[in-house]
Specification:
- The chain is built from three helices and five strands, in the order H-H-E-E-H-E-E-E.
- The strands form two sheets. A three-stranded antiparallel β-sheet has the order 3-4-5, with no helix packed on it.
- The radius of gyration is 28 Å and the shape is rod-shaped.
Amino acid sequence: MVELMSGIISAIEIAKKLNSLNKKIKDADFKMFIADLNIELANAKNNIAELIDENTKLKAEVERLNYKKLETLQFKGGAYYNSNSDGPFCPGCYDGKQKISRLVENNPDFKFAGNYICSVCGKMFKVTV
């Protein structure tokens, strides 16, 4: 998105230079092409602004849906589970970052530190459910 905006800004700068050159040239076709270019650049700039606004709204909606999904988890036996008893999910990731990260069974050699390990943050937990 940033590259697109910088490209449009560069094109606008070129159009400004062409406009100053346009004052020195008497060719009507050249002037018409410059006017068309300015119109197209203005349209592109408006479209980019609309895309940025839509992107911002979609990101907010994703955050809202993620938060709503997080509200359904319940803490039991040292980990989080959803309403369908799916889980366990990492309490560290959920509490600290509001992210749902699945816990997986730990290597038997390391079960003394915890019978489950987070697949994202790597913390070990003793889960009793």
